Amino acid sequence: xxxxxxxxxxxxxxxxxxxxxxxxxxxxxxxxxxxxxxxxxxxxxxxxxxxxxxxxxxxxxxxxxxxxxxxxxxxxxxxxxxxxxxxxxxxxxxxxxxxxxxxxxxxxxxxxxxxxxxxxxxxxxxxxxxxxxxxxxxxxxxxxxxxxxxxxxxxxxxxxxxxxxxxxxxxxxxxxxxxxxxxxxxxxxxxxxxxxxxxxxxxxxxxxxxxxxxxxxxxxxxxxxxxxxxxxxxxxxxxxxxxxxxxxxxxxxxxxxxxxxxxxxxxxxxxxxxxxxxxxxxxxxxxxxxxxxxxxxxxxxxxxxxxxxxxxxxxxxxxxxxxxxxxxxxxxxxxxxxxxxxxxxxxxxxxxxxxxxxxxxxxxxxxxxxxxxxxxxxxxxxxxxxxxxxxxxxxxxxxxxxxxxxxxxxxxxxxxxxxxxxxxxxxxxxxxxxxxxxxxxxxxxxxxxxxxxxxxxxxxxxxxxxxxxxxxxxxxxxxxxxxxxxxxxx
Length: 490
Known about the structure:
Elements: E1 2-3, H1 25-33, H2 39-57, E2 60-63, H3 65-76, E3 90-94, H4 121-128, E4 132-137, H5 170-177, E5 183-188, H6 194-200, E6 203-206, E7 224-229, H7 232-243, E8 262-264, E9 275-277, E10 284-287, H8 300-314, E11 319-322, H9 329-346, H10 357-371, H11 377-392, E12 397-401, H12 418-428, H13 433-438, E13 442-449, E14 455-461, H14 467-480
Parallel strand pairs: 1-2, 3-4, 3-5, 10-11, 10-12
Antiparallel strand pairs: 2-4, 5-7, 6-7, 6-13, 8-9, 12-14, 13-14
């Protein structure tokens, strides 16, 4: 991992004696706006923690120490500091979108090394809101896998370094779960935000189409930019900034507000639950413990978590019904064909000699399927046009397990071939792709612990336009069933 040297500062500012590491983004921004902390001191603290912890985790491809501190000083001097929603908040950006002055390598030695001259619109919005980009996070090559290994690093799960943090936004999820940043950016083409969020015990949301500017590689309109965080409040705030729509953010103070309105009740601490939601009641919540096509299995502990999460929502005033239908088999086939078609599309123009074995084999399989007209497009179009709505039924929100099995080992999967990678990806993380293909919003929320000691994530899905509804329900789960916000790194 490339690092800039962290310069020493000798500030007499009394705020430096209070640690902001581990605080939520909302707390940090409020402190910086009110002058209780300074953006440079907050950023420097987080850079020091990255230097201490990332050697064990491998979340970052590049740490921008000197540049981040310079940018933090610029934030501190802004005339509009008191109105910045993310004032001084350190954020990490996934290595597949443009960050001005940095190369977007997308986990590959084959991609161009030239620095971007402009920020992607999502990065620009984060910076305009006062956030400071402290680093670029690791991804699997071309973000094509549900792991997080590449020529740059094998990223490890903070809860168990022997396991993967998931992918492809695994570096971002690991950085948040390890307390190195309170917020991170990721992208989700077939589950790449929700999978690592579930693996790492944090929250993430994939917005529906046209809510947030998409990544350049949009995977046939399926891929979306989104945030990862440790609290639903932070998640909603970051989504609102990325979307350029602050109505998605939870309003502070008293009043009625929109769904998911919050009243702040002090320090969040390391276990959320200090936020009291006055969100909606009377929604129809469908729970599908085993929603996958026939032939797929879901760990019984994950099934139980989804059912319990749904009944927790029932306990705060919603109606819970069972959804027994399995997703159609043709949808699973279309998802796999789409994955391979995306690999074929993404390797165009890249030197195959510099690509990893996994990437070459995925693209080769995509090429063979394309020759016989199997690109997944027919299934994608059918699902998005009407089949998703028909299968979903009359529910307002669907609850499912996010994963089907615990995270696999953190290894160099990129050096392995097609069959091993496909088998493990499809076995442990098959439950997310359907909602990319539909273009519907979906999120992952921590809910309990597996007998292996790993966190469990439950997936919430809503029809188009349901982002606020999902966030409101996630707040109710957070209040009723708090989770540990950070892995206890020694």
